[in-house]
Amino acid sequence: MSNGVISQPRMGRLTQGTIFCGACADGYGVSPVWGLIITARCDTAHDKVVVVNYLPVVRVEDWLRRHGGLLILEKLQQELRAKFVGLLKKKSLSDSLLEVYAPSDIAADYFPALNREPVNNKERADESDRQKALAISQELSAVTMALRQSPLEIPYTDSLLAGKTTITQSILAELLGHKLSGYYYLSSIGELTENTSLHGYVVVLREVRTIYRETARLIVEGVSKDKIDPSKAYSGVSFDVFDFVYPVAELRSPWVEHLLQVFCTMFGRIGVEDADRSKALTIAESVFSLKETA
Q1: By CB atoms within 10 Å of each CB, which of 38, 139, 156, 247 scores lowest?
Q2: What 8-state DSSP symbol labels residue 163?
Q3: Where are the domains of the chain?
Q4: Which pLDDT tens digit goes with each residue over 250-260?
Q5: What does DSSP assign to residue 226?
Q6: DSSP secondary structure string, 54-74?
Q7: Which residues are within 8 A (CB) of 180 and not within 5 positions of it... i.e. 6 or more apart?
Q8: What is the pLDDT of residue 92?
Q9: How big is the CA angle at 79 (ends 73 and 82), to the nearest 5 degrees?
Q10: Is domain 6-60+169-268 classified as CATH 2.30.30.110?
Q11: Exposure of 22 in the CB half-sphere (CA atoms within 13 A)
Q12: Could you tell me which residues come within 8 angstroms of residue 169 by beta carbon, excluding any fewer than 6 positions away?
């Protein structure tokens, strides 16, 4: 089993890039979660560390109803707000109204019903804007309310995300191109696991999880729930979906290095002041005597 990116796990070890089933991730409830080991190879190979770190891996379809759904709703909110502001500007109204009043109140107060059939182009245009304002305000209110809730506590309802193909496609294009900060796309994690996805998987880069060395040793050979000593802390392993926790695949080089590069970039960006561009002319004039004459 190998698709160039994924290979079979190596027996008897967990190493950087190993993927195992039965991991944990905040907000994903009973959805299947895998773990991708990120602890350095030398540390896992020689059993140097007390804990081993991993990143959660979830199915794309589950991600789209949690983290991905949050991104879709945020982008949808921006688009709806822009459309609503456009309608306000047509009436020479300030978009600051949205900072004070609910969109539905603005639509009711500033886009009143004519209470009769429009008889000219202006009235027909006003009625069209009224209907647009009403529809947009209702959707904008629903999206804003959803974003104010604990976004990862419950999956986003299909009623909010249904039909948002363009926005969803935009978010997925960034994900698949490894341009979406905080997430890394994997097309496959092999065929040795249950609960597979037809669409691929997402590594949640900002949620670093931990398993203890003793737990890691059990996972290497495969462990069932009845083999876990309840008196010991086995943080980072879940039997809610998988009855048996074991290595299912290994992310190959150079993809594991690329993933870690993306992961480190999130926490290691350094900002410095831009150089004074005017110095370029000064240097050029000084070194090459290029000063222009009037």
Answers
A1: 139
A2: T
A3: 6-60+169-268, 67-151
A4: 999 999 999 99
A5: G
A6: EEEEEEHHHHTTTHHHHHHHH
A7: 71, 171, 174
A8: 93
A9: 140
A10: yes
A11: 23
A12: none
d(C-alpha 44, C-alpha 36), whole Å: 13
State both tokens at 232. 């010991």
**Do residues 196 and 187 make contact, with C-beta atoms less than 8 angstroms apart?**
no
Name which of 31, 75, 78 is nearest 202 in CA terms.
Answer: 31
Token output for 91: 């009436």
What is the distance between the terminal CA atoms of the chain, rounded to a whole angstrom? 72
- CA–CA distance from 24 to each of 33, 35, 61, 184, 246 (Å)? 6, 8, 17, 17, 14
The residue behind tokens 């097309």 is 187
**Spatial separation of the C-alpha atoms in residues 68 and 75, rounded to whole Å:** 11
pLDDT the model gives residue 230: 60
pLDDT digits (tens, 9 = 90+) for 75-106: 999 999 999 999 999 999 999 999 999 999 99
Torsion, Cα 288 289 292 294, to 10 degrees, reads: -170
Q: Which has more pLDDT, 22 or 162?
A: 22
Distance CA 116, CA 139 (A): 26
CB 221 within 8 Å of CB 248: no
User: Looking up tokens 């190879």, which residue turns up?
Assistant: 41
User: What is the length of the chain?
Assistant: 294
**Residue 19, token pair as written in the block:** 């993927």
Report the C-alpha gap between 201 and 198 in whole angstroms: 9
8 Å CB contact between 73 and 146: yes
Cβ(4)–Cβ(163) under 8 Å? no
At residue 99, what is the residue type? E
Tokens of 138: 């209702």
